[in-house]
Amino acid sequence: MRDCPMFATKGREGKQAPPSGLNSNAPKQNRFYALQTRGDQDSSPDVITDMLRVFQHDVYALLDPGASLSFVTPFMAMKFDLLPDVLSEPFSVSTHAGDCVVAKRVYRKCPVSLSHRVTFVDLVELDMLDFDFILASSDEVTSSESIPAPRNDDPTPLAGELNRWCAEGQWQIYRDAKMPTPIQVLPLSALDSQLFLRFTIEYLLVYKPSRHVLDKPAAVNRIKAALGRALVPYYPLAGRVRARTNGSAGLEVVCRAQGAAFIQAASDLTAKEFEGAPRHNTQWMKLLSLQVTDVLKGAPPLVVQLTWLSDGSATLGVGFNHCLCDGIGSAEFLNLFAELATGKQKFTELKRQVWNRYLMDPNIYNKRIYQQNHPEFKKVPDLCNFDSQFSQLAPTSVTFNRSRVNELKKLLTYNQSSCTSFEVLSAHIWKSWATSLNLPPNQTLKLLFTINIRNRVQPSLPIGYYGNRFVLGCAQSSARDLVEKGLGYTVGLVKRAKERVDDEYVKEVVELVSSNGTSPDSVGVLIMSQWSKLGLEKVDIGMGRPVEVGPVCCDRYCILLPVYDQKDSVKVNVAVPTSAVDKYLYLLNTTTTIGT
Fold this sequence. Notes:
Blueprint: E1 48-54, E2 57-64, E3 70-72, H1 74-77, E4 85-94, E5 100-114, E6 117-125, E7 133-136, E8 162-166, E9 169-173, E10 184-187, E11 200-207, H2 216-230, E12 240-243, E13 251-255, E14 260-266, E15 302-308, E16 314-321, H3 327-342, E17 393-400, H4 402-410, H5 421-436, E18 444-452, E19 470-478, H6 479-484, H7 487-499, H8 503-516, E20 525-530, E21 548-551, E22 558-563, E23 566-577, H9 581-588
């Protein structure tokens, strides 16, 4: 999870003005009062202070009869379920003291409640002291239309849609006249609302267009239009996620077509630089530059950044709020988006996706006595200050083809056909990782990996359900046994962790996470996610299939990735402590350990 620059107030100049009064003979201009303290309003007969309500938030407001614009602080604006327009022509707001502040953002048509009457006001974002909000009340209040509007650079907009463009990115809001998106609040499930899912899934796809000269403006327009069309059936991805307001636990998404973010950028990188691991784990972070640290603070749930590389290639960075969808759901959206971009899918043929998040809520189950052990949620003793070992990380990337996986299977003494490629490869990775860390023999270690539950619950989840539909499988062992025993022992742990997950197990997890907010601990844990089975390698946005697929940042979580034009190969991507990286890579590339 990373910081979100849309909430940072950049480029503001000047300083706050001292108290000042109205001059009736002065020409009207955009201005504001910035009183030093709340007590200073007593010395100014021309202004009134009061508590107002903006959206559902109470604000301390200054009612200024001389101001021609209304203002809101960045801190208060963060709470709005609304994206700002970034003005194509920023303007200065002056004070009578001669100071000026540059205004760059405006929140349009915000509902303001005053004396039980609601009016809609355009709020300019501005740093202020002592007041959350300034409401203009003069006869010459600037209307929405007179504030500089963002350009619409899309030559082929859909009927009835609203486009927003800003210099730092393109905020897309699409509402097709034939398929309007509902205005509603949708509850997220207990699985969606888990504490450890409140972050952004970040994909990075690298493209090498076959054409020597690509019409970039046409490609951008095509991709923008496809993104907007895809957001019609997936309209919650254009909403905003927040904690439920009715006092119950869990999250909800406010759907008012607030928009997803589209950003266009350029970089001096080349496609070749993505063939291996990055030099450091955040090297490619700018390829998805809208950085979100808190997914509940009004950030768009979907961010798409198209970056043109110096060799004519391109990257597509995509961020999904994990509370809204899992890996499978996000990949389904990306493939629909790609088919719309290439014309393989017609907009008129789109089907609305299945919400039905109640299917993963505990209120549809009878209360039960837990029959299963759930080690994924149980803390283990920390014998070695475990997390501190991961302060300095070295990214790694190693490819396993079918031949190398079969070599690992031959090390097993029992029937090789009884174990899957994932089971043997994940066991080998976990064993190599644990051995390289030189941990105390009694340290308990866990391998947590995602298990798709769509067909493990009764009845099975419907096609089109794109919410979180996985639980964590947990293999657990002491460091001594993991290091000293053979690969067969580790494979057995992974197999049994998978076999435990059935309908009853899933229902217990749903009840556990909803009743006490339980979440996995990080001590002794390696988390593994299988992106190689999501279909990300098929996402063709009109530049061919991606030649590289991976995360934006290489972190301590292990991700299994698809390999371009090698259907049966898997790339293992994980960052390990710099002190252990050489030993880890040696062990991972060695397939001579005797199994048991």
